């Protein structure tokens, strides 16, 4: 093997190791989710497999989705009152990423077990908002909000950093396929096309609120320490890309300023990282 090939192999191995360390909790014995083409809920020809398999775009989309989700007071209350996210934000992001990976790529029985586990957790999350309104994590409309923000954010990050020319028909297929998970979790209504997703977000905007707790969550998300120094520059860029991905109205509600004049640099840098990580995992 030539020195150049050896250096490339070493770099690939290092990148793969860093990515796996971020997305798998070694203390809990987690290992990367194994793809089961013939046994999974979707399969390698699905758009879900295409979109959910990109590390960088899923991280950017995942952070953007979380910022959108927290704008709904009942979703925020469920997280605020019933989780340890303030001391383990990375853990929450990691668990979400693992759920998406398992339900997208693992064997059907593993995907169904993960869904049932989440349903069981949701069934126990109940509370009262500061204004006295009762909330429940298994409320179909709240589940619909969580789902649509994830779907739109994952897909928009994919389009921006992996497939800018993605056909509208493929975008619609993505929503139709991903709806299977939303339905299994009990969400309603469930968007099955880009138009339906945009309409649902527009319909729910009147329920969204940005207050001190909302902004505290945004601060915690965006100031989350990197797991190690090697990941720190990538994380900072990905978080800036996530804020850049948000709709203008969501940034205004959070009082977040976008990259502004730095947006081209953020997009160029994030795109470069995405291509590099795809190169590393390509073998």
Short summary:
This protein is an all-alpha fold.
In DSSP terms (H or I, runs of 4 or more residues), the helix count works out at 13
Helix content: 55-70%
Succession of helices and strands: HHHHHHEEHHHHHHH
The dominant shape is globular
Poorly predicted runs of 5 or more residues: none
The mean pLDDT is 88
Name the quaternary structure: single chain
Class based on secondary structure composition and strand pairing: mainly alpha
How many E strands? Answer: 2
Rounded Rg = 19 Å
The largest pleated sheet is described as: 2 strands, antiparallel
**Hey, roughly how much beta strand do the residues contain?**
under 5%
The neighbouring-strand order within the major sheet is 1-2
Termini Cα gap: 15 Å
Description:
There is one protein chain. With 283 residues, the protein is mainly alpha-helical. Strands 1-2 form a two-stranded antiparallel ribbon. α7 crosses α9. It starts with a helix and ends with a helix.
Topology:
Layout: H1 3-23, H2 47-52, H3 55-69, H4 73-82, H5 89-105, H6 108-124, E1 126-128, E2 134-136, H7 140-161, H8 168-185, H9 194-204, H10 212-222, H11 232-245, H12 248-254, H13 263-281
Antiparallel strand pairs: 1-2
Helix pairs in contact: 1-13, 3-7, 3-11, 5-6, 7-8, 7-9, 11-13
């Amino acid at each position: 093997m030539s020195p150049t090939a050896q250096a490339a192999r070493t770099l690939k191995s290092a990148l793969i190791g860093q990515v796996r360390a971020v997305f798998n909790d070694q203390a809990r014995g987690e290992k990367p989710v194994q793809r089961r083409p013939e046994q999974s809920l979707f399969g390698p020809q699905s758009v879900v497999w295409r979109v959910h398999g990109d590390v960088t775009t899923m991280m950017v989309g995942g952070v953007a989705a979380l910022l959108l989700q927290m704008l709904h007071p009942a979703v925020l209350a469920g997280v605020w009152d019933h989780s340890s996210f303030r001391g383990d934000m990375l853990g929450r992001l990691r668990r979400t990423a693992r759920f998406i990976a398992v339900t997208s790529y693992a064997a059907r029985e593993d995907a169904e077990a993960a869904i049932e586990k989440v349903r069981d957790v949701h069934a126990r999350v109940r509370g009262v908002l500061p204004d006295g309104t009762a909330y429940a994590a298994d409320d179909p409309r709240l589940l619909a909000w969580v789902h649509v923000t994830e779907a739109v954010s994952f897909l928009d990050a994919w389009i921006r950093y992996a497939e800018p020319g993605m056909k509208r028909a493929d975008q619609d297929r993505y929503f139709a396929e991903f709806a299977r998970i939303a339905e299994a979790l009990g969400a309603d209504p469930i968007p099955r096309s880009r138009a339906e997703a945009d309409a649902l977000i527009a319909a729910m905007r009147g329920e969204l609120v940005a207050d001190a707790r909302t902004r505290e969550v945004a601060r915690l998300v965006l100031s989350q320490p990197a797991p190690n120094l090697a990941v720190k520059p990538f994380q900072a860029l990905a978080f800036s890309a996530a804020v850049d991905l948000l709709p203008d109205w969501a940034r205004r509600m959070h009082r977040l300023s976008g990259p502004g004049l730095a947006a081209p640099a953020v997009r160029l840098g994030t795109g470069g990282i995405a291509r590099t990580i795809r190169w590393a995992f390509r073998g």
